[in-house]
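User: Hi! I'm working on a homework problem where we have to compare a predicted structure to a textbook description. Could you give me the structure for the chain below?
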Amino acid sequence: MLPPNLMALESRRPCRRGLQTLTTSAQTTTQPADRAEVDITTTLEGTPGGTFMRQFWTAVGVSTDVAPGRAKPIRIMGNDYTLYRGQSGHAQVIDARCPHRGAPMHLGWVEEDAMRCVYHGWKFGCDGVCVDQPAEEAGYKDKVRIGTYPTREHLGVIFCFFGEGAEPAFPPFPEPPGEGVIDVWPVYEVPCNYLQCFENTMDEVHVAFTHAPGGSHAKLSHDLPLITAEETDWGLMRYGRRKSGNVRHTLHYAPNIVRVIVPPLSGMNGVGGWPEIIFSFTPVDDEKCLWIITSKVYVMGDDVAKFHAQLAELNRLRAEAPPIMDVVRDIWSGKLAYADVTHPDLAVVQDIAVQAGQGVIEDRSAEFLGRSDAAIVAWRRILRRELQLIAQGKPHKTWSTPPDHITPALGV
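Assistant: Happy to help. Predicted structure tokens:
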């Protein structure tokens, strides 16, 4: 039986009307219709979860993915957009389609900091104003705009604000303190809902088992921690206390970011030590998400060149290795044994195999949560509370930008 402080209402059954019964392995309760269960997994526009997510800056890509003068399609929280970079270097997100007749804007071309549609040449500034319509009468362009969204960059990541009203303070999180090198990882598209990936970061115990093959997390596996968590103005602080007395601190920024100190990448052979990573889980839609990761590696002087040389070698191995999802599918099919897999991004392969292996959207009604799931339970309660308030049209929490002085602790 779960301890009282870990009781959680995990049913995802929709509310019909009147009273709804929610059942877990630990208890059965009834709750009024105005406290009806909300879907904590969806971020689609118009849903409580979509409204919640759109209060924050959302990571949409990494800076190196779009060069000046180039455009690309992106899909975020179930909606399609165009991301382009102007000749000045400014990155901008606009609607996916031209308001004229719906042609994809990313097929067009960048002129200075504006985008011209490939279909009929309508041109839009990064503020959405139509500045040219080659075949139309004078003044007609003043009636037309394209949707634009505030777009900024921080630590090699492109962020966009899709919400209503004034944009939040930027950056959404501080740069880790101290001298070092900013290292932006490849972007991984993962075939499952973002929330089970975000929840995985709250589960410190899994590393002793999921990452046992390859030994990347061996130093975190000798002494399984007791997990506790507390809500903060900016999200959730998780603690992993070990029998040695060491306490590992991990920061979970609302709504979908973790900041944590992790072992060196398996392909880096320890060069650069334990980096501090900031990991965004961006919903593509309700069934896919992007892992967008930036990090600070604490190297200085001659060690910077050594780090870049080792990173170049790791990237060479990545380029030669089979695609991550091909390996994951071979694991799922039984063609490859999980414990026998080798890959330069082994920890990523392992995490995707397990997290996406839970299902496209995990069935939380079938879980048996235990003591080690305390942070997951805490976050679900916070998320349900906020989504229920949004669904009821009631005031909900105003989240703060994380302060500089609260940082992760290795704790081993």
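For your comparison, note the following. The CA atoms of residues 58 and 159 lie 5 Å apart. Confidence is low (pLDDT under 50) at residues 1-33. Good luck with the assignment!
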